[in-house]
Structures are given as structure tokens and as C-alpha cells.
Write a structure and sequence with these properties.
With 318 residues, the protein is an alpha/beta fold. The protein is built from 13 helices and 10 strands. It has a single domain (6-314), classed as Alpha-Beta Barrel (TIM Barrel), CATH 3.20.20. Helix 3 (63-79) runs parallel beside helix 4 and helix 12 (287-297) packs antiparallel against helix 13. It is globular.
């Protein structure tokens, strides 16, 4: 049987670059990486992971780097029968990059990805949590400016810090027609999920698994139909869960919360889209339910959503 179609709503494009390609990009940019890059991927804790992520992301410096990694990941995802992706990227203000070059590279890569690999790609830039409110607003303005080129939402990434300083940036994004897709409830508790729902108007939540600690919040998420972007193997690799057997996904699903499945940073977590869907399946989430949650949570236009629904309807799910 043909592999079932998949949707991925939570993948950091900087974390998709396989080690060999990352070394090639670093070499052409005269950027130093450790010889044993893979050894860095044994994370001591979440803070260590963020340090490694920033080190690897630093190799990406030019328009062609950003364009290439979108196209390369679309090819990889297509091999796992992904039909729709929402790619996350950090604009790199702290590294002095040309922000237009960053956005243009990713947006042009999304167009090329569709042309070459048949995967619809939309983009949801992240505000790193270390940014000031002014820097966050700068990112929001760029995101709105690139809305017609495939940017559909705005998020916050990195350590889950209080989100209140970013409220004005998210207000700008909403006024400009973008969705709100912040990280919350990965390592921080259920209150971080409630905070982004109420303070940032979250349309969807990246991770959100610690909502399970607050039954009232879980019921609210189910009632709202809010989709959580769950990344089982990422949660294991970063220590957000001690083992897959302890993952909250089964409780969330049993309570009626819609959960999509994603890889988060596949190259850095030694995973791929098939393996994360298999992990979710072992935890009781059916591929069809994951796909339908992906359709519901996607920030795409209604024409694209209808096509995704048609793909799901045409597949003979077991």
C-alpha cells in the first residue's frame, strides 16, 4: 500500500540540515564547526540543545543557504509522503544578517520546493525568546511584509520565558493577517500554555504537552479545537519526557485534544517524519487523526486546505 500522507506543522528549518550538508555550507561560509558534529547531538539538557542549535544555525548566512535548506528538506519530507509543511526559521537579527535576504531565501525556497517536490510549504518565523520587544516587533513587521510570499504565522522559540513582552509584536502580526503559533508547554508548565492562549491569541500551540497537568486547561483546549504540534522523539531527546511510555500524548488524545505530529529538528534529533508518526502510533494516535489535526491546524488558505482534505479523503486509511 502506498504510504499514508503526512502533514508537518512544526519543523525548524535550521534543524533539518543533515551533518554532511551543514559541513558543506559552513565551509563555503568559512564558518568553523567541530569535526565530530554528531557527538554534539547527545544533549545534556534543553539549554545545551539550544546552544548546539545556535552553533549549527550560525553556519547559515546567505540567501542561497536559506533557499537550499527549504528545498532539501522538502525532498526529504516528500520521501516520507509529506504533502504540506510549515517551516519555522529565526530571522538572525542577533547575527547581523540581512533580514530581507533571510526572508527572501526561505520564501523562494518554498516556491522551489513545491515546483521540484510537490510539497506545499508555508513559513512561520520565530521570535527568539531572548529578543527585546523592539526586536520582536521588527520580526513581526517583516513577517507581515512577506505574507504574500508564503509567510502565514509568527511564533516564539527558544527557552519558554514569559510571553508578555511580545504581546505587541503578536498584535502587529494579527493585524497583518498572520496566525499566532508560539511555543509553550514543552518544558514549562501548563500555565505557559494558558498564557499564550490568553495573551498572544494562540491559534495553535507548538508542543503544549504540559497542558496535561491542568485538567481544566485540557478540557478548554479540546473545547476550542486548539491543535497541539506534538513532537514525540524531540521530547525524548531533550528530556521533556523521561521515556516515550511516559509521554502525555495518550492522555491528551483521550481527552479530545487534537494533536498533529512533527519532527521539530529532525537532523539534530536523529529522526524523520515516518519515525515520529510511528512513535505517535505506538502511543495510540492514528495516522488519520494526526493528518486531520494537521489539516485543521494548518494556517494555509482555504483552497490549499480543501486540497489537503481531498488528499486525506482519497487515501484508504486502515
Amino acid at each position: 500500500m502506498k504510504p499514508f500522507p503526512k502533514i508537518e506543522l512544526h519543523v525548524h528549518l535550521e534543524g533539518t540540515v543533515r551533518a554532511g550538508t551543514l559541513r558543506e555550507i559552513a565551509k563555503r561560509n568559512d564558518y568553523a564547526l567541530p569535526d565530530d558534529l554528531e557527538a554534539l547531538y547527545a544533549y545534556r539538557d534543553f539549554t545545551h540543545f539550544i546552544e548546539v542549535f545556535e552553533l549549527c544555525a550560525g553556519a547559515l548566512q546567505r540567501y542561497d543557504d536559506f533557499r537550499q535548506i527549504v528545498v532539501d528538506y522538502a525532498a526529504e519530507a516528500a520521501a516520507h509522503r509529506a504533502v504540506y509543511l510549515e517551516g519555522i526559521f529565526a530571522p538572525g537579527l542577533w547575527r547581523g544578517l540581512d533580514t530581507d535576504e533571510v526572508f527572501s531565501g526561505y520564501c523562494d525556497g518554498a516556491v522551489e520546493a513545491r515546483e521540484l517536490h510537490g510539497v506545499e510549504v508555508r513559513l512561520t518565523p520565530d521570535i527568539p525568546s531572548v529578543y527585546s520587544p523592539d526586536e520582536a516587533e521588527t520580526v513581526a513587521r517583516f513577517a507581515v511584509a512577506y505574507r504574500d510570499r508564503g509567510v502565514v504565522g509568527l511564533g516564539i522559540g527558544g527557552l519558554e520565558l514569559p510571553s508578555e513582552p511580545f504581546a505587541s509584536a503578536f498584535a502587529l502580526a494579527r493585524e497583518g493577517g498572520l496566525g499566532s503559533v508560539p511555543h509553550a508547554g514543552e518544558l514549562a508548565g501548563a500555565e505557559s500554555v494558558r498564557t499564550v492562549l490568553e495573551g498572544l491569541g494562540a491559534d495553535r500551540i507548538r508542543h503544549g504537552i504540559r497542558a496535561v497537568d491542568d485538567p481544566g486547561l485540557v478540557a478548554e483546549l479540546a473545547g476550542r479545537g486548539t491543535v497541539l504540534d506534538v513532537c514525540p522523539l524531540s521530547n525524548l531527546r531533550t528530556g521533556a519526557v523521561a521515556s516515550l511510555a511516559e509521554h502525555p500524548l495518550p492522555q491528551l488524545v483521550a481527552a479530545g485534544v487534537r494533536c498533529s505530529i512533527s519532527t521539530d529538528d529532525p537532523a539534530m534529533f536523529d529522526t524523520d517524519l515516518t519515525r515520529d508518526y510511528e512513535a505517535a502510533g505506538a502511543l495510540g494516535l492514528s495516522p488519520r487523526a494526526a493528518y486531520e489535526a494537521g489539516v485543521a491546524g494548518a494556517l494555509c488558505d482555504e483552497g490549499t486546505r480543501a486540497r489537503l482534505q481531498a488528499v486525506g479523503a482519497a487515501y484508504h486509511w486502515r
